[in-house]
Design brief:
This protein has 171 residues and is mostly beta strands. It is built from 1 helix and 7 strands. Strands 1-2-3-4-5-6-7 form a 7-stranded parallel beta sheet, with no helix packed on it.
Length: 171
């Protein structure tokens, strides 16, 4: 489904829900939606995001569950107002260190991916209250994870973790 022409005049849009369609590519013009606070793209065929996603600085919730993302979305690290990020059931292999810029993030759910490691920079996620990383390829947790004092819900079920961080933590 090509949505480029359909959204070119939606600069004032605050919420966009395209769940359960056949969207395979997001248009570059997505970046004109400067007032967008919610973007729901679940159950599509999206493999990557355009760089223009970085212009959505008011985005609070991004949901991209059940897509074909094979990498952390391009531009998402610039969406520093994000408080909720959902990317379950994709093919993401790693969380980049640049994700530390998401300091407003309260909920991160990346279940059912191929993530093998979390960078130590996650210590910057000081607002994080919920972290869900079930069914990935994690073998260890970063020591800095224990420094996230606002965490209330953590789930790492069905990974290959052989121990918890040794640093003092509130997990």
């Amino acid at each position: 489904m090509d949505i480029e022409q359909g959204i070119s005049n939606w600069g004032k849009l605050k919420s966009l829900d395209l769940r359960r369609n056949r969207v395979f590519k997001l248009p570059r013009s997505l970046g004109i939606m400067l007032h967008l606070t919610e973007l729901f793209l679940d159950n599509n065929e999206i493999q990557e995001t355009p760089k223009s996603l970085a212009r959505l600085t008011k985005l609070i919730c991004l949901s991209m569950n059940h897509n074909d993302l094979n990498a952390w979305p391009v531009g998402v690290d610039a969406c520093t107002s994000l408080t909720e990020l959902f990317m379950n059931h994709n093919l993401i292999e790693f969380v980049p260190a640049s994700a530390a810029s998401l300091q407003s993030l309260r909920q991160l759910s990346v279940n059912h991916n191929k993530i093998a490691d979390l960078p130590p920079e996650v210590v910057a996620w000081t607002s994080l209250t919920e972290l869900r990383m079930n069914e990935n390829r994690l073998e260890r947790l970063p020591e800095t994870l224990g420094l996230l004092e606002n965490l209330e819900h953590v789930s790492f079920a069905k990974n290959a973790i052989d121990g918890a961080p040794s640093s003092p933590c509130t997990l």
